[in-house]
Each structure stands twice: as structure tokens, then as C-alpha cells.
Specification:
Belongs to the methyltransferase superfamily. L-isoaspartyl/D-aspartyl protein methyltransferase family. By secondary structure, the chain is of the alpha/beta class. It is built from 7 helices and 11 strands. The longest helix is centred in the middle third of the chain and has 17 residues. The N and C termini lie far apart (about 40 Å). The structure holds S-adenosylmethionine (SAM).
Length: about 290
């Protein structure tokens, strides 16, 4: 997917091309895109390809094409103070851009299936904070990433103002995704067409009431599908439990695929524990 605009010489050039082709339309989105060099999310040996409008995959690391991220960022209609959930948060590139818009009173959570990808995302986040010239020009809502299958979030979990899913969503999971939204919230995801398996439309869904949603198709896209949850030995699904954390930094680390120690430190630094709801990955929570 991608190739909608010409390759750039550098990040600014790529953003110029995305603007010219009307993929980036708002100043807020443009500013976030310019602040983060896409090449920094590539492995060094592949950096040269970063300013092409193409998706990139290496092992478990996967970035979508810049034209897709532009459509996603515009469709999310972001502003400071919102809560955001990124399903399949990958390298953290999108979550970091979003964090630049949400500012210090936002909430920025990501769930990613692969622990090595979360590790990579935190390395990239550290490097952005330490080395980027643009970091000081923003009030940042630092993302927190947890390992888990995003289809294992139980229905009683918190809801978000904005939700993005970075992998293809089957029709049967549409309602599950819609219920992650607060009233008035916006969900953007590649949603499978009813008539055609593995054919997706990037779709924007706005929650207009307790049981009403407005749906708008943005563009036809090709995405790898969401990985379905594995069932544990007793046949029950693993569960991502969402708990409130009183900020004592003690309630994490339970569960076989749990890995958010770093996220906790980050949230603690911001002293926003009253805003924070943390994911704890556990098996078969009753
Ligand atoms: C296209 S990549 C998203 C990249 C991300 N937007 C970024 O900024 O790097 C899709 C991601 O979804 C993850 N994924 C796929 N199925 C998942 C699932 N069921 N739960 C959580 N993550 C999943 C993949 O491991 C992959 O990292």
C-alpha cells in the first residue's frame, strides 16, 4: 500500500509531497509529521527507503505507508487533552505523532502483540525524546505501550475519545471496536468489506449515542489482518485486564505476556496517575 505521492529527499520533502497531494490538510497534523523523522523508525540499513510513500516490513516490525498515516491522522480529528488508544501500536511512530497533539493532559495508550516490537518502540521513543530538536517545541503526551492481543480487552474496560487500529479488522469484530469508544468518540480502522474477505476500507466511525454510530469510508486499503487471540490450555481466551493504578508503581508485572515496566515509569514522571488506566495482561481473569 502507498506510492500515492513521489518519494522525498528527506522528511520535510516527503511532508511537502503529502501536503501537495492533499493527504495532509491541517496545520496540526503537518506540524506533528514534520517533528518526527520517519527514517528514525527504520533500522539504519533501510533508512534510505523511509521517504518513499511505501509500507515497510522487517520481521515483526511494520510501518504503514505515509499516505495512510496522513489519512488516519486527519480522520482522527485530534486535539489536546483527548484519550487515544492505538491497537497494534507497532514502532510507536503514529503514537508519538499523536502524543505531540494530545499534550500533557491527554492519555496515550498502545497495545502491541509482539514484545520485541514494544522494546523497539521504547528505544525509538527514548531516542526521539533525547535527540530530537523538535521535542522541546511541543507539550508531549508520552505513549505507554503494553504487550497483548488487542482483541482480548474485556467489555468493562475504559473507553477512549479516539481509537485507531493498525491492522485489518474483520467484520465480526466491528462492534467490539465500536464499543471501545466514548460517546462522541472517533474510531479509524481498516475494516473488511462484507462482500470481499481481506479487502479493507479505511473507515471512520463516530459514536453518536449509546447505541448509534456514523460510518464513513475513507479509502480502499490493503492491510495485514489482526492476529486472532490464542486460547490458553484450558480453552479460555487470555484476557487483557484494564485496571486503575493508584500511582504506587506496584500493580504491574503480573501475567505471562506483561511488559509495561517502562510505561509505568513514564506515567509516574508525568504525575498524572489519576488519569491513568493501565493494561495488565493476565490469563483467564474471572
Ligand atoms: C502496520 S503495523 C502498525 C504500525 C504502527 N502504526 C506504527 O506506527 O508503527 C500493525 C501492527 O499490529 C500488530 N498486531 C496485529 N494483530 C494484533 C493484535 N491482535 N493485537 C495487537 N497487535 C496486533 C502487529 O504486530 C503490527 O505491529
Amino acid at each position: 500500500m502507498g506510492g500515492a505521492v513521489s518519494a522525498g529527499e528527506d522528511n520535510d520533502d516527503l511532508i511537502d509531497n503529502l501536503k501537495e497531494a492533499y493527504y495532509i490538510r491541517s496545520d496540526l497534523v503537518e506540524r506533528a509529521f514534520r517533528a518526527i523523522d520517519r527514517a528514525d523508525y527504520y533500522l539504519d540499513e533501510y533508512r534510505d527507503n523511509a521517504y518513499k510513500d511505501l509500507a515497510w516490513r522487517h520481521g515483526n516490525i511494520h510501518l504503514s505507508a505515509p499516505c495512510i498515516y496522513s489519512e488516519v491522522m486527519e480522520a482522527l480529528d485530534l486535539h489536546p487533552g483527548l484519550s487515544f488508544l492505538n491497537l497494534g501500536s507497532g514502532t510507536g511512530y503514529l503514537s508519538t505523532m499523536v502524543g505531540l497533539i494530545l499534550g500533557p493532559f491527554g492519555v496515550n495508550h498502545g497495545i502491541e502483540l509482539h514484545a520485541d516490537v514494544i522494546e523497539y518502540a521504547y528505544q525509538k521513543l527514548d531516542s526521539f525524546i533525547k535527540n530530537s530538536d523538535s521535542f522541546d517545541k511541543f507539550e508531549f503526551c508520552e505513549p505507554t505501550f503494553v504487550v497483548g492481543n488487542c482483541l482480548d480487552i474485556p467489555p468493562e474496560s475504559r473507553q477512549y475519545d479516539r481509537v485507531y487500529c493498525g491492522a485489518g479488522v474483520q467484520k465480526e469484530h466491528e462492534d467490539y471496536m465500536k464499543n471501545l469508544l466514548k460517546m462522541g468518540g472517533i474510531l479509524v480502522m481498516p475494516l473488511e468489506e462484507t462482500s470481499s474477505i481481506r479487502h479493507y476500507h479505511l473507515t471512520k466511525i463516530t459514536r453518536t449515542g449509546a447505541s448509534s454510530w456514523e460510518t464513513k469510508k475513507i479509502i480502499s486499503v490493503s492491510f495485514a489482518p489482526l492476529v486472532l487471540p490464542k486460547h490458553s490450555t484450558n480453552g479460555k481466551p487470555h484476557t487483557l485486564r484494564v485496571t486503575t493504578d493508584g500511582g504506587d508503581n506496584q500493580s504491574r508485572g503480573r501475567g505471562s505476556s506483561f511488559s509495561v515496566g517502562r510505561g509505568l515509569a513514564v506515567a509516574g514522571l508525568h504525575k498524572r496517575s489519576w488519569l491513568r488506566l493501565d493494561f495488565v495482561s493476565v490469563e483467564n481473569v474471572c
